[in-house]
Amino acid sequence: MIAFVEPTTSTGIVAYLTIFVLAGFVGIEVISKVPSILHTPLMSGSNAIHGIVLVGALTIMGEAHGPAQLTLGFLAVFLATLNVVGGFVVTDRMLEMFKSKPGERGRAAAAGDTGPAAGRSAAAGTDTGAAGGGEAGTGDAA
Amino acid sequence: MMATTFTLADARDLAYLIAIAGFILALKGLSSPRHARQGNLVGAAAAALAIGMTFTLPELRNSGTNLVLAIIAMIFGAVIAVPVARFVKMTAMPQLVAIFNGVGGGAAALIAIVELLHLHFLGLQPAVYVTAEVLLGVLIGSVSFSGSAIAFVKLQELITGRPITYPGQQVINGLVGIVIVAMILLALVTGSIAYVWVILVLSLVLGVIFVLPIGGADVPVLISLLNSFTGLAVAASGFVLNSALLIVAGTLVGASGILLTRLMSAAMGRSLPNILFSAFGAVITATGGEEGDAARPVRAGTPDDVGVLLAYARKVVIIPGYGLAVAQAQHTARELAEALKARGVETFFAIHPVAGRMPGHMNVLLAEANVPYDELKEMDEANPEMSTADVALVVGANDTVNPAAKSTPGSPIYGMPIIHADEAENIIFLKRSMRPGFAGIDNDLLYDPKTTMLFGDAKDTLQKLVTAVNDA
What we know:
Chain A is mostly helical. Chain A has helices at residues 11-30, 39-49, 53-63, 66-96, 102-111, 114-141. Chain B is α/β, with parallel strands linked by helices. Chains A and B meet through α1, α2, α3, α4 and α5 of A and α1, α2, α3, α4 and α5 of B.
């Protein structure tokens, strides 16, 4: 996967360019119809997806030699982790608010202010759990 | 080596493939309200799988110190990112997305640089296309990094949200761009590694000077564009590392980000070049300014009067804007809507696509305050109802109801779709002052004979209105 392709051949680059072009079309196709209400969460969610650059940062960290490469690699891993972890957590927090059904809300509102508030903090609890789970998974693999 | 056995490397590549599928499903899910949250969780799971499997790389697994350093960097990142992402106020969400986006771009640029240093360390002269990939990754990643940083300080109001302009700005920006292109060509021809540092610095500068002339109201569209840039920088670093995962994930974000940016600028009725290069809102139109405001009469009302007006209305439309978000008044706005409905007043919220500071931002805030979906009407749905509304209650919004957008061809916001608050029988503005909105344009509606101003903090005023409605 990360092996350096023999510099004198250019077959590898064309294969990757093919992937690039196809992925570009998929990217446009897949979000062709988004209601404006979801523009912000979608921006935030796709921001989290490019946080996968952490895989690249870890890859170069594996092969880094000497203080310059190690320092820059360390910084890359740190920044990429901020991107991927922060991105998914903040998107989840935004989307958490879209969750409850109007019907449930009506009843909760009628029951008084504490109802919806309690429901929301419970949901927030679950959330932290999910984010923690993702981190734990990463840790296990390490 | 042994082509017939399923190796750990195959397992890793397979995990990366699953992650790619996960990301596509995540984007698909994120574009529909029903599946958005699951979509995001699928994306997070895909990322966790791919990151976890990366630790099976023999180079990383057996690298000793490097592995320890990588894990320390990840722990640092996670320990900072989780609390920040969880506890920052919802109003600060746009700048938070900007910062998380910027660091991703920075990481992509650093990866490209480290790989180049590594190849030189091994004594390999990289092929021209590898150098090109590296330099593109550095250029796009750095622009995204420094551009996002400036977007952050603008939204955080550490510097003015107004466009920062100086004579010859576009010429200077263009020159910096040309110098960077020249440096890239030189680097490709000479194969010298020194140019990468020059390109890094110039790209960081370009990110800053590119963002300075973009006004605060347009920064959300800019963040979407920079998000797309980071995606492309990640794709470039994917090319450098021959990683299909990074190429696909980066390109998905790059392509969908461009489309999303266009959708956002369309929602503002403007073209993308206009947003990026016109220094929108730098000049307050001739009728604006403090003196002009002081000379024109406005009618200021009291919460008690307005409360009675609301309580005996048949139909009230609440039009929230960024001021509501700043005052953290979304819960009080919901209370007012409930108090009105309890009296049998037909009440709903009319949401402009770019109300707040990002498209959809206002929906998020009001959903947080438990306002039911069916009371949130999009602009196109709300506008036909405006002419039959007794009261349009504008809470901390300004540009999104400015009739200049449909009546004054010379106005900078001419052509932007607005909520037709001017068609309602009475218009109530909750504002802190007569200052113009984000776009820096005076609003004639404030001086309309049908308009009553309620000055003060939106949350206080709304609270008084709730009391007044209940007492009426």
